[in-house]
Design goal:
Elements: E1 3-8, H1 16-26, E2 31-38, E3 42-47, H2 53-63, E4 68-73, E5 81-84, H3 95-101, H4 106-117, H5 123-133, H6 140-147, H7 155-164, E6 168-176, H8 177-187, E7 191-195, E8 197-200, E9 203-208, H9 215-229, E10 236-240, H10 246-251, E11 254-258, H11 262-267, E12 270-272, H12 279-283
Parallel strand pairs: 5-6, 5-10, 6-7, 10-11, 11-12
Antiparallel strand pairs: 1-3, 1-4, 2-3, 8-9
The structure holds magnesium ion (MG).
Length: about 300
Amino acid sequence: MPQVIVMVGDPLPGGIEDVAAEVAGAFGLSPVSGRMLSPDRAMELTLDEDGDAGEIADTLRQALPEIDVAVLSTEGRRKKVLLADMDATMVVGETIDELAAALGKEAQVSAITERAMRGEIDFEAALDERVAMLAGLDASEIDRVAEGLTYSPGAEMLVQTMAAHGARCVLVSGGFDRVTGVVRARLGFHSDRANHLEVNDARLTGTARKPVVDAGTKLATLRETAMAAGVTLADCLAIGDGANDQPMIAAAGLGIAYRAKPALRAATEVQINHTDLRAALWFQGYADDEIVGGMT
Ligand SMILES: [Mg+2]
C-alpha cells in the first residue's frame, strides 16, 4: 500500500510540493501524484514506495516549521470510530478552571490542571484535589460554563463529517458529564463519557463519583467502541492534548496530538500544532467538498 504525505497550512506557501519532493528524495522516494484537498490549505502527495513515516514526517516538519505534516498509509485511511478528548481539544481551555473561577480559585486549580495534563502528577489525585476546591459551588454554574464554551475551530466539521460517513463518534473526558452532555449535543457526538460531580441541595459536595474517568478509562472506551462497531483499533482515530489521552492515542490506528502538552507531543507521530481540527479530516483524505458542518 502506498503512503501519502499530507500537508496543511494557514495558508500553504507556494512551491511546498517541491520541498516535499526534495525531502522524499532524500529518503529515496518520489511523489507520483498530487491532489489538493482544500485550496491553499491542504494537499497530499502520493509516494512511489513506503518509507519510514516518522522519519520523513520529522524531516518535513523541520523543513516546513509552520505546516502540519502527516505521512500515512493509504490503507484504511478513513477511520470508522472517533474518540475525542474535550477540554483543550474540542473546546478551548479547561472547564474545571472556569468552574474554579466562579469561586475565585482559578489560579490554584489551573496550576494543578496544567501539571496533571503534562503528566507530572497523578491524574486521579489531581482531580480529587481540584474537585474538593469546588465544594459549595452552585451546580447551575456548571451549566453556565457549558453554555459559554468556546469551541475549537473545525470541531463541528470533524465530528459531523466523520458521522456523516458512518463513523461512531464518542466524546471521552476527564471533565464532567454535565458539560460533555452539552458538547456532545452541540457537536453531534453519538455518546459521551466523563466524570460525575456529586451534588447535594443544588451545591457541589466537592467529590467526584468513583471510579473516575482517567487515561485507562479512555483506552477502555476506545476498545469498547471499536468492538461494538465491529472494527479493529487500526480503524479508529483518537485525538487529544493531554497526558491522560496518551494511551488511547497510542492504541488507535490514527492517533493525533492536538496542540498538545510536550510529553504527548514527544510520544505521538501525527500532530496538529499550527492549524485547526479540519486537519484531522484532510489527514484521512477528505476533500473540502466532502466536509460537512458549520464553521465551528
Ligand atoms: Mg484535554
